[in-house]
Structure formats: structure tokens, C-alpha cells
């Protein structure tokens, strides 16, 4: 069973999953991953047996829900954790009157977001040395 919880700032568990996935696995620098201002986001966590297995953060700008840093622990991937946490974030966005969800997807994860109803919007660009594309979904 997956349980979901939100936080108004990062904590040690969140730092650990982001370090594990983005810094250790994807080789993004510590400075780029933790660039400050974390208190400006809502941090969404998925737990299985009280272990943090999935994470993302959101912010609202006008009617846009911005989703970022989507991460699932490696050994828990392809089991629906990513989908569950994304749908929960979209629900939070609808509750805040957002009309669209937007995110900068890594190209390798584009298929994941497509399977959830997101469409690519614009050209490929590089962030932290990784190919990205902006994707949008109507909520
Ligand atoms: N490419 C294409 N499709 C993918 C995919 C990928 N990289 N990862 C998952 N999918 C598909 C699944 O097969 C599933 O399809 P289905 O509905 O037909 O069964 C659907 O997307 C949902 O998958 P789910 O199991 O919920 O995803 P997940 O828990 O494995 O999480 C990521 C997906 C991308 C969040 C996870 O692989 C991850 O944390 N990767 C490393 C960090 C990362 O790249 N984050 C994204 C940054 S933009």
C-alpha cells in the first residue's frame, strides 16, 4: 500500500532520496540539486511500509501547477509509485484551481509522462547537462 504525505520544507529523508537518485545515480551536482528556496515548494512523499519510496515537489503560479524533481527509489520503479504520486500532485493542483500541470521532463522519462497524459511542448533544451523537454497536461 502506498501512503502520501505533504511537507512545507525538505527533511532528511527527502534529501536522501534526491541525493540517491539525482546526485549519485544521475550525476547532477549537489549545488544544482539543492539550489535553495525549498520552502517555496510543497514536497510530496510516497511511503511504502513507512519507507520513503517516491518524491516530487510542486509549486503553483497563477493557474499552472509546476511539478519537479520526480524520483522513485530504484528498486521500487515500474510498480506504479511514480504514477500514484503524479496523480496525487495533480489532485492537489486541481484543489488549488490550477488548469494545467507543467514540467521539464528529462528526455529519457518522456514516455513515463506521456503515459500519464502529458504532451511535449517546445524544443529540447539542456539543464544540468541533461536533455529536457517541457511537457504540459490539462487538469
Ligand atoms: N520511459 C517510458 N515509460 C516509463 C518510464 C520511462 N523511463 N518509466 C515508467 N514508464 C511507464 C511505466 O511502464 C508505466 O506504464 P503503464 O501505465 O503502461 O504500465 C507508467 O510509465 C507508469 O510507471 P510507474 O511505475 O508509475 O513509474 P515509476 O514508479 O517507475 O517512476 C520515474 C518513473 C521516471 C519517476 C522513475 O523511473 C525515476 O525515478 N527515474 C529516475 C529519476 C528520473 O528520471 N526522474 C524524472 C526526471 S524528469
Gross geometry: globular
- Give the helix/strand class: alpha+beta
Number of strands: 8
Strand content: 35-45%
Number of domains: 1
Largest sheet: 8 strands, mixed
Identify the bound ligands: coenzyme A
**Poorly predicted tracts of residues:** none
Give the N-to-C terminal Cα separation: 25 Å
Helix content: 25-40%
Name the helix and strand elements from N-terminus to C-terminus, one letter apiece.
EHHEEEHEHEEE
CATH fold description: Aminopeptidase
Distinct helical segment count? 4
Mean pLDDT: 97
Radius of gyration: 14 Å
What would CATH call the architecture? 3-Layer(aba) Sandwich
Q: CATH homologous superfamily?
A: Gcn5-related N-acetyltransferase (GNAT)
Q: Would you state the CATH class?
A: Alpha Beta
Structural notes for this entry:
With 139 residues, this protein is of the alpha+beta class. It is built from four helices and eight strands, in the order E-H-H-E-E-E-H-E-H-E-E-E. It has a single domain, classed as Aminopeptidase. The protein has helices spanning 12-25, 30-33, 81-95, 110-115; strands spanning 3-7, 42-48, 51-61, 64-72, 100-106, 119-120, 125-127, 130-138. Strands 1, 2, 3, 4, 5, 6, 7 and 8 form an eight-stranded mixed β-sheet that branches. The radius of gyration is 14 Å and the shape is globular. It starts with a strand and ends with a strand. The chain binds coenzyme A. The site of coenzyme A (COA) has 18 residues, from strand 4, helix 3, strand 5 and helix 4. Residues 21, 70-72, 77-83, 105-106, 108-109, 111-112, 115 line the site of coenzyme A (COA).
Amino acid at each position: 500500500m502506498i501512503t502520501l504525505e505533504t511537507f512545507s520544507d525538505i527533511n532528511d529523508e527527502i534529501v536522501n532520496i534526491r541525493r540517491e537518485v539525482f546526485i549519485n545515480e544521475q550525476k547532477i551536482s549537489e549545488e544544482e540539486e539543492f539550489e535553495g528556496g525549498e520552502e517555496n515548494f510543497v514536497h510530496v512523499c510516497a511511503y511504502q511500509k513507512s519507507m520513503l519510496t517516491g518524491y516530487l515537489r510542486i509549486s503553483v503560479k497563477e493557474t499552472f501547477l509546476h511539478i519537479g524533481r520526480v524520483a522513485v527509489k530504484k528498486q521500487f520503479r515500474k510498480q506504479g509509485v511514480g504514477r500514484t504520486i503524479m496523480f496525487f500532485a495533480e489532485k492537489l493542483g486541481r484543489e488549488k484551481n490550477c488548469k494545467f500541470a507543467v514540467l521539464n521532463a528529462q528526455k529519457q522519462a518522456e514516455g513515463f509522462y506521456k503515459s500519464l497524459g502529458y504532451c511535449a511542448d517546445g524544443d529540447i533544451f539542456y539543464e544540468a547537462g541533461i536533455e529536457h523537454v517541457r511537457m504540459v497536461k490539462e487538469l
